Amino acid sequence: MTTVDTAVGRRLAPLTGWEARRLARHPVLWPLPVVIVVTSALDGATGGRTIGYWYGTIFVAVAFFSPMFVLFAANLVASGARRSRAEEMLNVTPATDTRRTWAMCLGVALPPAAVGAVAAGAMAFIDSVSNIPPQDLQSAGELAQIPFILAGAGLLGVLGARWLTFAGGAVVTFVAATLGGVVVFGRFHSGMWWMWWSTGATFEDQVRVPGRPWLHVGYLAGLCVCAALAAVYRDRAHWPRLAAIGAPVLAATLVVGWFQVP
Amino acid sequence: MTGVRVHGATKSFGRTTALDSVDFEAGTGVTGLLGPNGAGKTTLLRTIATVLAPDRGTVTLLGLDPSRSDDRTRIRERLGYLPQDAGFHRGFTVFEFVDYVAILKEMTDRRARHDDVRRVIALTGLEPVSGKRIRALSGGMRRRVGLAQALLGDPGLLVLDEPTVGLDPEQRLRFREMISRAGEGRTVVMSSHQTEDITALCTRIAVIQQGRVRFTGTPAELTAQAADRVWTDTQRSPAALAAWRTGDGTYRNVGDPPEGAELIPPTLEDAYLLLMGEPELEVTHP
Q: Has the ipTM of the complex gone over 0.85?
C-alpha cells in the first residue's frame, strides 16, 4: 500500500509543480500588483499610512483582490489544453484525467494558500509588535481563513473550467460565486456582499458580526475539498464516486457552515 | 509481435459510419494509411491511439487490450501520438511543452526526463528554437514539436496523423528522414494524402475509402495493380479514369488503355487513383 501511495505521489509531484508554475506566471496575475499598489496608495492618501493601514492593506490584497485574480488565472490554466486544442495529444498519456486534475487542483490551490499563510503570518506579526485598533483586528481564526480563501479561489477556477466548458465560463463562475455569497451573507448578516467568505464582518462603519471563525475555517476547508472532488470526478463515469465521497463531505461542510454563523 | 491488430472495427458518429468492419494490422516499420478526406483514416488512427473505442470489433495494441483500463495505461506508456490538428499551450516554450508532456508520460526522474527532452528536441532539429515560445514558431516547426513529444520515451508504437501536412518540400524531406529513423525497431502508423511520402517511407500500406479497407499490402503491390493501365498520349483519352497534361506536353492517362497505347510504368499515385475509381475492388496481400 505504501509503495503505491509513494508512486502516485512521485508521479503527482512534478505535475503539480508544473501547474503551479503555470498559474504563477499566468498573465492574468500580472495586473494584480498594480491594482494593489494603486488602491492602497489611494487609501493611504486619504487615511494616512499608519500601522493599521499596512495591516489592512495586506488583508485586502490577499483576501479581496487576489482571490478574484487567482480564480480567473486558475480557470484559464485549467482550460488551457481545451482552448489550445492540445487535449487530444495530452489525453493519450499514461497520466489519467483524474490524476491530471488532482495535480491541477493542488497546483492552483497550494501556492496561493502558501501566499495566504505568509500574509496571515505577517498580519499576526504586525499585531504582535503594535496595537491594531480592535475594530480592524483579525482574530487568529479569521487569519487562518485567508489561506483557504485563496486556495478556494483557485479550486473554484478549476471547477468552473471543468464544468462550464464554454467561453466565459470563468465569468459565470465568478458571478455565481459572488451572488451566492451575497445571498448567503444577506440571509444571515448585514448584506455586505464583499465579505461573503468571512464571518467577521469588519468593513468600515458596519457592525461587527462575530460568528465562529474556527468553524468558518472548517467550512472553507470543506468547500475547498468539495470543489476539488467535483472537478476531479467531473466525468459521468466518476459520478458514483463523486456522490459516494462528495456527499458526506458536502453534508459535513454544510453542518459546519450552519454552526459557524452566530 | 504485431504492434497493431484491428479486427472488425466499426465506429459510427450519429448516422455516419466512419469505420465499417475494418481489419488492419501493422508490425515493425512504417505502415501508411491512404485515402480521400472523410475516408476514416483519422478515426482509425484515433482508435489505434486509444482516443476512441470502436463500437464493435477488437483492437490489440502492443499485445494489450485498450478496452481494459490497466492495459490502456500500459499502452499509453509506450505510445507516441501526433494528432492531425495538434494544438499547443501558447505560452510554453518548445522545451517546456515537451517537458510537460514528458511529465504526463510519467518520467519522474528530472535529470533523465530532461535528457530525453533534449534528445527528442535534437532528433527533430528543434535545438535552435528550444527556448522560443511555440506561438512564435512556423507551422512546420510546430509539427516538429508535435513529433518531438510523440518520440518521448522511445515509444514502441508511434501514431502520426498526416505528419507532413502543411510542410514545405524541404521540411517534408526532413520529416521523412525523422519518421524513417523512428520506424527502425518500432511500429509506426501514419496517414498521408501524399503518395510520395507513402512510397518513400512505408513498408506496408492500407487504402481506406468510406470506412472500409480497400487494399492492404506493400507499396509495390499496390503499384503493380496499375501495371499496363497507364499510358501517354498527345491528348486526354476518353477511356481514362484520370488524365493530366505533364510538363513535356503529353497526357498521362490512367484507366483502361486503348489498343496500341504507349504504356509507361505506373506509380503508386496511378494505382491509388485506379483503386478509388473502382469501388467494387478490394485487395488484401498478407
A: no
